[in-house]
Amino acid sequence: MSNVAGVPSSFWLASLDRIEKRRKLNKDISVDFAVVGGGLTGLYLAYYLKKHDPSLRISLLESQYCGFGASGRNGGWVSALVPFSKAKIEERFSLEVARAVDKVMVDGLEEIERIVALEKIDCELRRGGTLLLARNKSQERRLKIYVDEENRYRDSPPHVWLDIDKLSSHLKNVNALGAAYDEACARVQPAKLVRGLAAVVDALGVEIYEDTTVVEIAPGSLTTKEGYRVRAKSILQCTEAYSSSVTSPSGSSLIPIYSLMVVTQPLPDSFFDDVGWSRYETITDGRNLIIYAQRTDDNRIAIGGRGAPYRFGSKLHSGSEHSHKITDLLVTSLKELFPSLKDIVVDYEWGGAIAATRDLIPNIRYDETLGLGWAYGYVGDGVTSSNVAARTLRDLVLGEETELTSMPWARHRSRQWEPEPIRYLGVNGSILVARTIDYLENRGVDATILQRIFNALVPK
Ligand SMILES: Cc1cc2nc3c(=O)[nH]c(=O)nc-3n(C[C@H](O)[C@H](O)[C@H](O)COP(=O)(O)OP(=O)(O)OC[C@H]3O[C@@H](n4cnc5c(N)ncnc54)[C@H](O)[C@@H]3O)c2cc1C
After folding, report:
1. Where on the phi/psi map is residue 211: left (φ > 0), alpha (ψ -120 to 50), or beta?
2. Ligand 1 within 6 A of CB of 224
3. What span, in angstroms and rounded, lies between the C-alpha atoms of 33 and 220?
4. I need a surface site. Which of 76, 312, 314, 370 has the fewest CB within 10 A?
5. Model confidence pLDDT, tens digit, residues 49-102
6. How many angstroms is it from 379 CA to the middle of ligand 1?
7. Are strands 346-357 and 185-187 parallel, antiparallel or unpaired?
8. Any ligand 1 atom below 6 A from CB of 42
């Protein structure tokens, strides 16, 4: 499994045919819109702008190849999740706004289903919902509260609590006391989604330049590493966790957090006879240090998790994309979830960076005077959020006041993260506390006090 870009950055990308990079920018150009970053955000944005007005001249510049970043590496959950707390949104704005946020996210999932069908993107999209398994009494207590709280913001489809009997229509012989179930989640093969979307955008007439790194963005023009300039009325930066690699007047403050994944070899039919999982639900449990899994179309389990240490100074480092410790933890988690899984052979392991703002609310901004825009900060919920963000940024750029431009993320600028070393201690401290709570709860110990400390450390 290798391709032109060397070692592919995920199993998903490695499973595709050889990736041929598109042309590189090798001259100065002038366009209407320049989009920086060929992940889901940049591609959706180019897609919606071009659909709005096919005569617009739009260029998209990508430093590696479309899908190289988180969009080609993720867990493939197309969920209605947001990284921030809706209760905080209700407190700060109103119940109506918190409910509107949830609706916009459920609509976002439906919009992705619509585009995938309309544009015939073959990305193994299946809508089976998501199961949040309760692995112990503490998780069960928390998840039942979660169902009630989330239903405060949702009419349809409702979140439901499944006791062990009801759970068996989704999953059997799983080590859980019950599960919270949300029908509003699908799963995809992420690299097929992002590469398929790039092909659609390409065919619409957006000029995609790959192997083209943007080093500086200024009002009216951007500059590439080779010194070429792109003049544009609007320049829209969609580089998520990589944003610090570009000099621009964004004033953004975000930290990269690494999420790591493994995929098993294809599992025998006997395993799925034993556990069910026929609807391809995405799966997690109620622990604090998040894990996320999906069943692939070729009967593997792809599972990811957090917990990789944060690097001092918010440094991006490819070394953070691999960790034996996290790989072992993911394999152990799988064995704990499914007792019939005795010998697990890992076929591929990888990781990638996600971006977190200080209040965990994405920042989708457009400065009309400068002609510059930004979209970032989805943490681990970017597959649907990137679509919602792209449509929000489109509306801001076009000067249209819509439901999306009234959302908490529109025109929002999060406050700065704390300076180092407080930031380092806070982020790594919260990982340690989360891991300790999960450890204690698995052994039946009540960790309420630590949970309060964790809630105070993590901005929600
Ligand atoms: C391991 C992992 C698992 C995840 N699982 C899920 C999940 O299951 N569900 C979910 O909703 N979200 C998940 N996420 C998050 C989700 O993948 C991201 O939020 C989303 O893909 C972000 O899309 P993006 O286009 O904004 O950023 P990216 O996909 O990171 O794209 C940014 C692009 O910009 C390019 N770039 C960077 N710098 C420059 C430059 N200077 N010049 C030109 N181009 C540049 C990069 O090469 C990259 O292609 C996961 C993320 C990871 C890493």
Report:
1. left
2. no
3. 10
4. 312
5. 999 999 999 999 999 999 999 999 999 999 999 999 999 999 999 999 999 999
6. 10
7. unpaired
8. yes
- Please name the residue whose Cα sits nearest to atom 51 of ligand 1: 74
Q: Check: pTM over 0.70? Answer yes or no.
A: yes
Rounded CA-CA distance 303/283 in Å is 9
Test site for ligand 1: of 354, 379, 387, 388, most ligand atoms within 8 A of the Cβ: 354
- Is the pLDDT assigned to residue 186 strictly greater than 60? yes
Is any atom of ligand 1 closer than 6 Å to the C-beta of 246? yes
Tens of pLDDT, residues 301-343: 999 998 888 999 999 988 899 899 999 999 999 999 999 998 8
Chain mean position to CA 321 = 16
Q: In the structure encoding, which two tokens stand for residue 178, read together?
A: 């019950």
Cα 454 to Cα 218: distance, rounded to the nearest angstrom: 40
Contact, 419 vs 402, CB < 8 A?
A: no
Q: Are 60 and 207 in contact (CB under 8 A)?
A: yes
Quote the distance between the C-alpha of residue 219 and its chain's center: 29
Residue type, position 214, single letter = V
How far is the C-alpha of 53 from the C-alpha of 51, rounded, in Å? 5
Q: Ligand 1, residue 190: give the atom nearest the CA.
A: 17
| Bridge pairing between strands 254-264 and 301-305 | antiparallel
Tokens 């989640």 — which residue?
A: 185
What is the reported pLDDT for 4? Answer: 47
- pLDDT given for residue 452 in this prediction: 85
β strands within 296-368, DSSP E = 301-305, 346-357, 363-367
Three-class secondary structure of residue 86 per DSSP: helix
What is the arithmetic mean of pLDDT over 380-394? 98
DSSP 152-199: TT--SSPPEEEEHHHHTTTB-S-S-SEEEEES-EEE--HHHHHHHHHH
Residue 460 pLDDT class (50, 70, 90 cuts): low
Ligand 1 neighbour 352 (Cβ under 6 A): yes
Burial of 236 (C-beta count, 10 Å sphere; 0-12/13-18/19+): buried
* Protein residue closest via CA to atom 8 of ligand 1: 75
Rounded-to-10 torsion of CA 111, 355, 325, 424? -160
Token output for 394:
């489109």
Torsion of CA 180, 183, 184, 188, to 10 degrees: 100
363-367 and 301-305 beta bridge pairing: unpaired
Cβ of residue 354 lying under 6 Å from some atom of ligand 1: yes
Mean pLDDT score of the chain: 95
